[in-house]
What does this fold into?
Amino acid sequence: MKKIVYKKKLIGILLRTIPTGSVPITDGHEPLQLVTLRHPKGAYLKAHMHMPKKRVTKSLQESLIVKKGKIKLDLYGQDKKKFKTIQLKQGELFILMSGGYGIHILKNSELIEVKNGPFVEDKILI
It folds into this structure.
């Protein structure tokens, strides 16, 4: 796991491998909660449900999972300036905590994007 910081602000988390166990990747106060699960055959994770609770978020966070292919991400800070470029390949994941990104498709790719909702039309093009 690699935290990407720009001007002392956490912009994203890059995950290339899944650690052993049930590991929270994002802090508990973040709108997008990401936990990785890596357990051996025969392990059992207790069944559970979550009680309905009101959850209020003021920011959007996104996670991109590369299911197939290869991409390049241009990362932007809150000031709309590009500060870094990273590549992701099959099985890798990036969590955008703040700022923005542009996606270059380098090989035929399949991506999964997960973000907190509900959906609101609020996109600002950089």
About this structure: The chain has no helices and ten strands. The radius of gyration is 16 Å.
